[in-house]
Specification:
Layout: H1 2-5, E1 17-20, H2 25-60, H3 69-86, H4 89-98, E2 111-114, H5 116-152, H6 157-188, H7 234-247, H8 251-255, H9 269-275, H10 284-300, H11 312-327, H12 331-345
Antiparallel strand pairs: 1-2
Helix pairs in contact: 2-3, 2-6, 3-5, 4-5, 5-6, 11-12
Length: 347
């Protein structure tokens, strides 16, 4: 049975109508189909939107959760949702319903009815929907159990909380849609014997297949709350998270150099200032040598000069005043003025 309902390349038999004498069941079949449409339409759009949201979340977090067992269950869930999308059951059901008579004939009246092969194809597709919804429910439960362990370990808390909410919604909607399919199958299975059989048909001729007498519904049970301590699932998860933190190379660690070299001892500006003794500038020649040395240091690197706190225009004014006093013959006064200037700015 699994090979047939899971065969998406199963060729649809052509719609053929043959004369039949059973007609009283048609009204009941119309009512069952209409009931399935009305109940299924309430949750169909919401189920499709939630499934699309799960696919986007899975694609966005594929690199973060690729090694997690729970994420593999989510991938299986997404694959089952995609396979469910490929089954356009409503289109096939509409085509079959359009071939049914719209008038309630008396029993025994010869009317044109679709063949049993077309109805068998619908029942096989209905079994496929049933089996895929069962797999979706199982994947939701296994993935939710693992995501809950991740939330307790505070691992990607925000995204896991969102995943848990999406899984819970898909689980709830899938059970409801599954029960609608079960109700349609159980209520309409016995009608296949009343449809005319096409002797020339080759549909399911070489395949040994028996339709199940009844499909089982799934009841939405109460939420089972486990203890908050570490369980058997959480212990390997905690070890896996620690292993992930060790294996995952952070960008800052990747750019970090292993050989940092030897730290160079640099002389601070305060040490340079302490090394300078203003008492050494006692003559005009010593001050001239100091001015020449400082002019060179200031031109190369102002921060390395002794007079780094002296502004450029102040330094230029002080040196010119010193030269002017020396040229006018006031050497002692020039030395005194320059030393006072340095003592105010440096010392």
């Amino acid at each position: 049975m699994e090979r047939i309902w899971n065969d998406f390349n199963l060729k649809k038999p052509p719609f053929v109508t043959l004369p039949g004498k059973h007609s009283r069941f048609i009204i009941k079949l119309h009512a069952a189909i209409e009931n399935y449409y009305s109940s299924h339409a309430q949750y169909d759009a919401e189920f499709s939107e939630t499934a699309a949201l799960l696919s986007r979340l899975m694609a966005r977090r594929k690199n973060s959760f690729s090694k997690m067992k729970g994420f593999k269950d989510i991938c299986k869930l997404n694959a089952a949702l995609c396979r469910l999308l490929r089954i356009d059951f409503k289109r096939d059901l509409d085509s079959f319903r359009n071939t049914l008579p719209d008038v309630d004939y008396e029993e025994g009246t010869s009317i044109q009815l679709p063949t049993r092969d077309s109805y068998n194809f619908l029942l096989i597709r209905l079994i496929a929907i049933y089996e895929l919804h069962r797999r979706i429910v199982e994947c939701c439960e296994s993935a939710a159990a693992y995501v809950t362990c991740q939330i307790r370990s505070n691992f990607f808390f925000e995204i896991n909380t969102l995943l848990l909410a999406v899984l819970a919604k898909i689980h709830n909607l899938s059970i409801k849609l599954l029960n609608f399919a079960v109700s349609l199958y159980n209520n309409t299975l016995h009608y296949r014997e009343k449809l005319p059989f096409n002797v020339k048909s080759k549909f399911l001729k070489d395949i040994q297949f028996e339709f199940p007498d009844k499909l089982e519904e799934i009841e939405i049970g109460p939420l089972e709350t486990n203890q908050t301590s570490l369980t058997d699932k959480e212990l390997p998860l905690k070890n896996l998270i620690q292993q992930e933190e060790k294996l995952a190379v952070v960008k800052a660690q990747k750019l970090k150099k292993t050989d940092v070299g030897q730290q160079v001892q640099r002389v601070t500006k305060l040490e340079q200032q302490k090394q300078f003794n203003i008492e050494q500038l006692s003559s005009v020649e010593e001050i001239k040598r100091f001015i020449a040395k400082e002019a060179k240091s200031r031109s190369i690197n102002l921060s390395a000069a002794i007079t780094t706190k002296v502004l450029s225009h102040e330094w230029a004014g002080a040196t010119k005043l010193f030269e002017r006093k020396v040229q006018s013959g006031e050497a002692k006064k020039a030395v005194s003025i320059f030393r006072k200037f340095l003592s105010l700015k440096i010392v």
